[in-house]
Design a protein that fits this description.
single chain, 113 residues, alpha+beta, five-stranded mixed beta sheet, 5 strands
Length: 113
């Protein structure tokens, strides 16, 4: 299992990467690591707007290399797991400004398989 780090600087950048708040839509994660379709990944979302990092599970649908002359970043298209809907809704609420009263955890949570 690969952990992809996704740093979101603004709400506009989040809307570019994850246009829908449904897990049926895909999320684009910029990465230069070549990933195979069907590979299981964890996306670690971090931002100044979030109180802590959020981990979301998904499966790689496709990976594309960078095209520097066309200003296209390398990245993977990730299909999120069906049970990650609560986390995706939370992220959309935070980045849209609907939730501002989010408490911070005192300890880090790590995925365990």
């Amino acid at each position: 299992m690969v952990i992809l780090k996704l740093r979101v600087r603004s709400a506009d950048e989040w809307r570019e990467l994850a246009p829908s708040d449904s897990v049926s839509e895909t999320v684009v994660v910029p990465t230069t690591d070549e990933l195979e379709p069907g590979q299981q990944v964890i996306i670690e979302v971090s931002s100044a707007l979030l109180p802590n990092k959020v981990l979301i599970r998904g499966t790689v649908q496709a990976w594309r290399p960078a095209l520097p002359r066309m200003r296209v970043r390398a990245g993977a298209t990730i299909e999120l797991a069906a049970d990650e809907q609560v986390k995706l809704t939370f992220l959309h609420d935070v980045f849209s400004g609907k939730r501002t009263d989010v408490p911070r955890r005192r300890h880090h949570r790590l995925p365990v398989s």
